[in-house]
Fold this sequence. Notes:
Ribonuclease iii, N-terminal Endonuclease Domain, Chain A; Double Stranded RNA Binding Domain; 2 domains; disordered C terminus; globular; 251 residues; mainly alpha; 60% helix; single chain; 11 helices
Amino acid sequence: MNDIERKIVEDLQNRLNITFFKEELLFEALVHTSYYNEQRQSGRVEIRSNERLEFLGDAVVDLLICEILYKEYPDLDEGMMAKIKAAVASEEVLSDIARSLKLGSFLFLGKGEEKSGGRMRNSILADTLESLIAAIYMDLGYEKVKELFWERFRFYINEVLEGRKLFDYKTALQEITQKRYHVIPEYALIKTEGKGHDKVFFVEVRVKGETYGKGIGKSKKEAEKKAAKEAYEKLVRDREDNTGFPSLRGM
């Protein structure tokens, strides 16, 4: 790290009231791919982006949310726990938490990403939060992660349970297909029946051309939501069975 980078890393530690044994790991958590690419092009070979930490952090966040749900909400069944976890592990919530920490101020971005508003972009903030959590996990342990983030995630769990943050199946489906398979779901209107106020819409949602959910509603939007719900729940079941999307194997 150069002096400017080291100062930013120290400032973040002060903000979080933690001290890393390996500050390089925290620095890595803050390095967006755009900054990494610029630095590599300038001949800096030792720098690493936060993508690997983000991968680990995704799992640590899931573990933390699941532990909170299991220990503090004993009356929730497995299906409800899965839905709440998906809502709380969403890009929207993770970016909210990142903003509460002012994490965008500590990011290392490339010049182009900086100009395009990357510091405030939900996807970048959410990914960086996951990277930060992974770095804390690796350097300071899981107990420190719980100390720093247990109450933050529990707050959002309560928001979902009390209806202030509603579960959006279309958003959840898109996030999980983008994150796991780098594709977005496509909605197709198959047919309509009836006329006027009695009109009914039939919609399918597809991933890589394969149908994963069907919905029927009095509006196209309602039908899409029902199709997304069916597809999302199928995807969750498949993941629990370690099957995933059959058509996406080997991607």
